[in-house]
Amino acid sequence: MTEAAKKAGVFGIAKKTRVSYTGKSLMVRIPKQIAEFADLKKGKRSRNIS
Question: Are 34 and 16 in contact (CB under 8 A)?
Answer without folding.
Answer: no
